[in-house]
Amino acid sequence: MKRIGILLCSALLLSLGACEDDLDQAPISEASAANFYRNTEDFQIAVNGIYNALGSYPVRSLNLSEVRSDNVYAPGVSGVREWNPVNNFEKTLATNPLISDAWNANYVGILRSNTVLDKINETVVPDAATRDRFIGEAKFLRAFYYFDLVRLFGRVPLFNRVLTPAQALEVPRSPVEEVYALIISDLEDAISKLPTTYNAQNRGRVTASAAKGILALVHLTRSGPKLHPAGPTLGVNEYSKALTLLNDVISSGQYSWVNNYASIFSYTNENNPDIVFDVQAIGGSAGDVGVGSNLPSEMYEELYARAIGIPFPGGIPIDGPKTPSNDLINSYSANDVRDNFIILPSYRDPNGALVNRAQFVKFLDVSRAGVDRFNWPINYPVLRYTDVLLLKAEAILRGGAGGSQGEVDVIVNQVRARAGLQPIANVNLDMLLAERRREFAAEGLRWHDLVRTGKVLDVMNAWRATEDVARKINAVTANDIVYPIPQTQLDVKKGLYDQNPGY
């Protein structure tokens, strides 16, 4: 099932623990593991530690992309859950724990990447192919963490090596263009160093094709209309670059079409041909506590969990459900097979009373429940082959050289056919986005799709006008395209970071 060991040995945990504790004071700090990085085995553990920092990414994507978008209506019923202000576009998010957690988790991953890259050399890892692979993995993951940061916060402090706390306190936020320069450089180097495939023991590690796919997404994002002066879209024209990379992934022969939609997400069919890159999770037994996924528990409601006999506490309190929006639900036609797999429209509570409220169940298999809510043994797809195909269609529609309208229609109709839908013709960007919305619901892509394509303000404000019956969601402005810098970071050293406009 899972092939990447994501448990760190105690030596590595001790070496990194002090660094992570300092994240409330400075983005990264000095590593204290001078005697740890001595041989290939030590570096394998260290690289595994970089992957380990992905553990919070699935729930972060749910709360900061899915909940932020028109896919979820979560204004809150009473009290305030952490995700309710995100959904409501409130201006006080600088003190929200979801925001600071996103900042800290990404910089933990960057610190671990930098530590590996700083310390690796031919003496400690003599085999050139192994050394290149470690460097490629570290650079891919550093780029991935920075890409997450730039999409969430815009300008961020840039670190390409390990710094002391005092040094880190002298590093201001870098322009978005400079952050992207490191991301692109890292991904290009990763492509040249990563293998195309792995043996069964190492399945789940990042490949050269995965690096190409993420780099293509970077080019597409950079090319989007510039709606925010320091946001993730720059208005550059790199659609042809993206299209070339996506075609490389498609022609690699490493991935293929999966005919059954539900099987892509099956607990017993992980690492299937649709998965280009995912967050691996181990779970399901007492020995795996802490290394599984808590994503399902962040989607289903607590009342539902009790009703169906999930054997541990958890789930979303009914005063702040993350409800699939009516607009999303109504976007599915009656014969779309994805609808009922992704969304449960209603349920019976423990007393048998009908709860007429929908919830996401895409990643839920009750028969596979572990020992607690952090122990679901389900991987989280970050980049799927289906996504690669649809991103290719997007690149063509946006002007990427070498594609055609016919190719766009073929791609979209392949997705629709799997869903049980009739073909359509002359697919445009709005039609493509609508299909992406239905295909990737609950996978954390929707907000980024809207920002990347420049549709975010029009779509979100039109949705707010019809969906927000509670009248709690604020008008969405260009300032809302990025989140605020966490207040904990602003307080470290007055004047080091400026706050994003509007917060």
TrEMBL record:
Its main location: membrane. The keyword Signal applies. It is found in: Cell outer membrane. Residues 373-503 form the RagB/SusD domain. Coiled coil: none annotated. Residues 77-220 form the SusD-like N-terminal domain. InterPro entries: SusD-like_N (IPR033985), SusD_RagB_dom (IPR012944), TPR-like_helical_dom_sf (IPR011990). GO terms for cellular component: cell outer membrane. The keyword Coiled coil does not apply. Residues 1-20 form the signal peptide. PROSITE patterns: PROKAR_LIPOPROTEIN (PS51257). Keywords: Cell outer membrane, Membrane, Signal. SUPFAM superfamilies: TPR-like. Belongs to the SusD family. This is RagB/SusD family nutrient uptake outer membrane protein.
